[in-house]
Each structure stands twice: as C-alpha cells, then as structure tokens.
Design goal:
about 160 residues, single chain, 5 helices, alpha/beta, about 15% strand, DHquinase_II_CS, globular, aromatic amino acid biosynthesis, DHquinase_II_sf, lyase, binds 1,3,4-trihydroxy-5-OXO-cyclohexanecarboxylic acid, Rossmann fold
Length: about 160
C-alpha cells in the first residue's frame, strides 16, 4: 500500500478510455488542455484540500476494475471519469459498487455533459452505484469531486 502522507488521505483519480488523448481529442468538447495539465490541477487541488491525489488513466477495462479492487483493499476513495465505459461496462459498475459498498466515496465525473450529447451517452451504469455525479463543468468538475470527498471524509 502506498504510504499515507501525514495528515492527508490518499485519493485516486481514475480516467477511462481515450482520456489520455485530452488536448487533441474533440477540444471543442473536452478543452485544449491535456491529461498532464489535468493531473497537475488535481494534485494541486488535492493538496489544498488535505488529500494526496494520484491520477491514473487506462484504456483497459480490466485494469480499471483491478484499481477498484485495490481501492477497496486499501480503503482509498475514488474519483472516476469512466469515459465510454460509463455507458456499457457492467464489470466496472460492479467494481465501483464494491467501493461504495465498502463505505468509501466514489465520485463520478464527466468533463462534458453526456446527457446533452448523443443518445447512447444519456445512461450511466456507474451513476446508480456512485456516491454522486458531476457533469458538464470541464476539468473543474474534478475539483468539485475532490471537495465532495474531502467533505465526506471530514478532511
Ligand atoms: C466523458 C463522456 C463520455 O460519454 C465519453 O465517452 C468520454 C468522456 C466526459 O468526460 O465527458 O470519453 O466521460
């Protein structure tokens, strides 16, 4: 297990498929800043909130499921942008459910507002098992999610 920083809680921020392409992927929808910029923002917001934030990205459903299992084992709260897995991955939904079932906060974040887009984006298999969902706020949504976690942890 990664060492907990003195006086802080570890939080993982996990990003699903194609979010490694932020900055070049549909900048009109997702903005022109890349994943490295998002990572720096999340780390900075985390330290303001007394949270040690580790940002991850994967295009691999199995890897993301494994991260949820580890979050349960290590008692780590989660911010998750499941990207396209949002709309169809029952495997990731079940894994996310294990996190909230373990009493850990799991905040779902979307940079865009999926409800205002294609019809296949209107349903999330993650929302029913998440602690809360933030959509349509750009990268700032991650800050709101981290604030929610800090609030829930009483940090
Ligand atoms: C997204 C919205 C999803 O519908 C899409 O598949 C993504 C990104 C968002 O952050 O707005 O990859 O999760």
């Amino acid at each position: 297990m990664e060492a907990t920083h003195k006086g802080t809680r570890n939080v993982i921020v996990v990003n699903g498929p194609n979010l490694g392409r932020l900055g070049v992927r549909e900048p009109d929808v997702y903005g022109s800043d890349d994943l490295a910029a998002l990572t720096r923002l999340c780390e900075g917001w985390g330290s303001e909130l007394g949270l040690h934030v580790e940002v991850r990205q994967s295009d691999d459903e199995a890897e993301m499921i494994g991260w949820m299992h580890r979050a349960v084992d290590e008692q780590t709260p989660v911010v998750m942008n499941p990207a396209a897995f949002t709309h169809y991955s029952y495997g990731l939904s079940d894994a996310a459910h294990m996190v909230t079932d373990a009493g850990l906060p799991l905040m779902e974040v979307h940079i865009s507002n999926p409800s205002a887009r294609d019809s296949f984006r209107k349903y999330s298999v993650i929302s029913p098992v998440a602690t809360g969902t933030i959509t349509g706020m750009g990268f700032y949504g991650y800050r709101l999610a981290l604030e929610a976690i800090a609030h829930l942890l009483g940090a």
